[in-house]
Design a protein that fits this description.
The protein is an alpha/beta fold. The protein contains 21 helices and 8 strands. The strands form 2 sheets. A 6-stranded mixed sheet has the order 1-3-4-5-2-6, with helices on both faces. Strands 7-8 form a two-stranded parallel sheet. The longest helix has about 40 residues. The protein is globular, with a radius of gyration of 28 Å. The termini are far apart. The structure holds adenosine-5'-diphosphate.
Amino acid sequence: MLESYGEAKEDAYRLLGVQRRTADAFYLLGYIAEKEGKTTLAVELYREVLRVEPEYLPAVMRLDKIKTGQEEEQKYRTLVEEAFEYAESLCRDVFGEGGTSNKPSGAGGDKSKPAQSDTVMSMGMILSVGKQIPSKNFNDIVGLDTLKERLFEEFILGLNRPDLFERYHKTTSAALLLYGPPGCGKTLLAEALAGELDSSLIRLKLDEVFDMYMGNTEKNIHAVFEEARREASQHKKCVLLIDEFDGLGLNRVGSTHQPIYRAIESQLLVELTNSSNHPGLVILAATNRPWDVDPTLKRSGRLSDPVYIPPPDTDTRIKLLKHYTQGLPSEVEYERIAQLTEDYSAPDIVKLVDKAKTKAILREYNSGQPSALTTQDLLDALSELPKGTLTAWYNDVYSETQTNPAIPRDYPELYHDIAKRVKNHSSPNEQAKHSVKTA
Ligand code: ADP
């Protein structure tokens, strides 16, 4: 290892020789110093990096981490001492004064050395990332019938009836990338799939496992995938949902060649590849911004065949309204409300129904007479609520395509479905420009 640092050092000195004040070289020397345990020197070198290039993010992160690392080590030592004293007091209770405990190595045996761990996240953190036993199933999903059929044929049948798949020499699919506007059922599909499989759902959000310290994000990602593979081996099935697969905007920042992002991307690739044949493990990745997912990641496993989850059309909105008012006393012209809620996502519909319910409840409370949810309650609620959230989302995508033409140019297949709706929307500025042009 030291030999490779030696080479790295030579590279850094060469860089400094060519160009005396290169932030990269100071950074590299700082990193080596840190690895060699020369923290004070490392801090000085990272500060030098920032003097040369104040926006040099990796140096900011290392400085930050050294500071928190020192604080955490102190906390860790105090904790270990307390735990050790407690263990000794328990031993004394059980064995009397001469009794001893076996000091766990790393935690009490040698207090100066924290126990080594492969992962930065504790199991508790993974659970908060988190592992759930879902209570949803396909009946909770309104519409998306073709996709439900596909999930049934590709994942559920194979995992619930492996005997059939074996007899026909068919392999179960491993992964699927879902994309589309927010609030249209991507996460719900993963939850319902786990419910149908009666398996646990482990959820990985890239921005939640992101850690400023070089190497830690990769360890966190590895820990979550390991947990998913373990769960699948133990219980024969497990759904891993990688939510906001575009998280960290790897495709955007990737082009700046920041080593930290390249390392995260490689780790994801390794984990996806290692998991692609793991029995019982189903991976669903979801994103609202498919063009921000790095193309290398999309090439791995079945993620190369992304599935579009559309916003609810009029028919689906009628069904959503019926679904969320099911079992209530109601007299509603569903079609009329559905026509008025074009840019409503499913959570927008839930919010609308909820507001309308309050109106019906208040009416009944104030009059003392049995009432029902009416079309008017929904119309009143509509007039009080802001527009559907999809309007803003489509406008944002539209504005982005104006400054970043690479989106429609480089990802036509992903952009195509979304573009059909984007064309109907434009930012106020664009609308103004358009009206000037056509005037
Ligand atoms: P996404 O992951 O696409 O951003 P979600 O799946 O998290 O959206 O949807 C948010 C919530 O909206 C869900 O928890 C559910 O209450 C509701 N919802 C979304 N899609 C549907 C659907 N097709 N049928 C019923 N409810 C839905």
